[in-house]
C-alpha cells in the first residue's frame, strides 16, 4: 500500500475504520496512523489559520467553523488512536487463536538439526547453572536441550494457553507462564533470554525487547534465533502464517533495534540459521 492509496483510503473509509481493520498488517496499520496524524496536523494548522483571520476580520461564522473543525479533528484523532490500540490487541487474539489451533500437532513439526541447535544455544549462553527465560516457548521444543546442559532453572512464557498446557504436561520442572511478552513482569532477573522461532509473531517487537531487557541481569544475554534461513522462513510464513507474521528483519536492522539495551556481538544469517545476540549494557 503506497502513500496515495493510504491517503485515498483515509478519505473514503476514515482513519479509525482503517486502523481497526484486523485484516491489515501491523506495519500497514502503523503507516495509516502516521499518515493520519500528519494529515490531521495539516488540517488543524489550516483551521487555526482560518480562526486567526476570522478574529482579524471579526467573522463569527468563520470563527465557529474553524473551532468546530479543530474539535472534530481532535475527536477523530482520539477515536483513531483508540481503534489502533484495540486492533493491536485483536491482532494478538488472532495470534493466540492461531497457535492454540496448532498446539496439538506442534511437536510433529520438524525442528532444526542438533548441530544448528547447539550453535544457537552456545551463542545464546545456554550452559550449566544459568537461569533461562524462554520467550514464546511453544510446547517447550528447546527444553530438552536446556536440561541436557544442566541449566539452573527454566522459566518460560507463551501467549497461547494451549501451547502452555502441553508444555506444562511435558516439563513439570519448568515454570511456564501464559502471558504477553510485551507486558509480563518477573520478580527476578535471568542470565539469558532465548527467543527461538518466534520473533516475527510479535506485533510490536521493540516493546517486547524493551520489556525483556528489564528481566535480564547486567551482562546477561538475549538471543533471537531461527533454525532456518531468513529467506526460507519468510516464504513459509507468507504461505501459511501471513496474518500472524511480520517479515524477519535483516540482522543489521535487528541489531540496531537491540542496540539501545544490548551490545550486539553475534550476527548470523546464512542458508542454515539466523541469530542475533548481545549482552545487556
Helix-strand blueprint:
Blueprint: H1 3-13, H2 15-19, H3 26-57, H4 60-102, H5 114-123, E1 131-135, H6 143-148, E2 153-158, H7 161-170, E3 175-178, E4 190-196, H8 205-213, E5 216-226, H9 230-240, H10 251-258, E6 262-269, E7 274-280
Parallel strand pairs: 1-2, 1-4, 2-3, 4-5
Antiparallel strand pairs: 5-7, 6-7
Question: CA-to-CA gap between the ends?
Answer: 38 Å
* Strand percent estimate: 15-25%
In helices, the fraction of residues equals 40-55%
Q: Which residues sit in consecutive blocks of at least 5 with pLDDT less than 50? A: 1-16
Which H/E pattern describes the elements? HHHHHEHEHEEHEHHEE
- Strand arrangement within the widest β-sheet reads 3-2-1-4-5-7-6
Q: What is the number of E strands?
A: 7
Instruction: List the total number of helices.
Output: 10
Helix vs. strand class = alpha/beta
Instruction: Quote the average pLDDT.
Output: 86
Work out the radius of gyration: 23 Å
The description of the largest β-sheet is: 7 strands, mixed
Shape call: elongated
Amino acid at each position: 500500500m503506497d502513500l496515495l492509496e493510504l491517503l485515498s483510503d483515509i478519505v473514503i473509509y476514515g482513519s479509525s475504520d482503517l486502523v481497526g481493520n484486523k485484516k491489515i498488517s501491523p506495519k500497514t496499520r502503523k503507516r495509516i496512523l502516521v499518515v493520519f496524524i500528519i494529515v490531521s496536523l495539516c488540517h488543524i494548522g489550516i483551521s487555526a489559520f482560518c480562526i486567526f483571520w476570522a478574529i482579524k476580520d471579526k467573522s463569527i461564522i468563520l470563527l465557529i467553523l474553524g473551532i468546530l473543525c479543530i474539535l472534530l479533528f481532535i475527536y477523530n484523532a482520539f477515536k483513531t488512536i483508540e481503534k489502533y490500540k484495540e486492533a493491536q490487541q485483536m491482532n494478538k487474539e488472532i495470534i493466540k487463536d492461531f497457535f492454540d489451533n496448532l498446539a496439538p500437532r506442534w511437536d510433529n513439526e520438524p525442528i532444526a538439526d542438533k548441530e544448528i541447535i547447539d550453535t544457537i544455544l552456545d551463542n545464546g549462553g545456554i550452559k550449566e547453572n544459568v537461569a533461562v527465560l524462554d520467550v514464546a516457548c511453544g510446547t517447550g521444543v528447546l527444553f530438552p536441550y536446556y536440561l541436557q546442559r544442566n541449566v539452573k532453572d527454566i522459566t518460560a512464557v507463551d501467549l497461547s494457553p494451549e501451547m502452555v498446557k502441553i508444555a506444562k504436561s511435558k516439563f513439570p520442572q519448568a515454570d511456564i507462564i501464559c502471558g504477553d511478552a510485551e507486558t509480563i513482569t518477573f520478580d527476578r532477573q535471568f542470565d539469558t533470554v532465548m527467543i527461538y522461532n518466534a520473533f516475527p509473531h510479535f506485533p510490536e517487537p521493540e516493546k517486547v525487547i524493551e520489556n525483556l531487557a528489564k528481566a535480564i541481569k547486567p551482562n546477561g544475554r538475549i538471543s533471537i534465533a531461527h533454525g532456518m534461513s531468513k529467506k526460507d522462513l519468510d516464504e513459509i510464513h507468507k504461505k501459511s502464517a501471513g496474518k500472524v507474521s511480520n517479515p524477519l528483519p535483516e540482522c543489521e536492522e535487528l541489531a540496531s533495534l537491540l542496540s539501545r539495551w544490548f551490545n550486539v556481538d553475534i550476527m548470523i544469517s546464512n542458508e542454515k540459521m539466523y541469530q542475533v545476540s548481545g549482552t545487556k549494557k
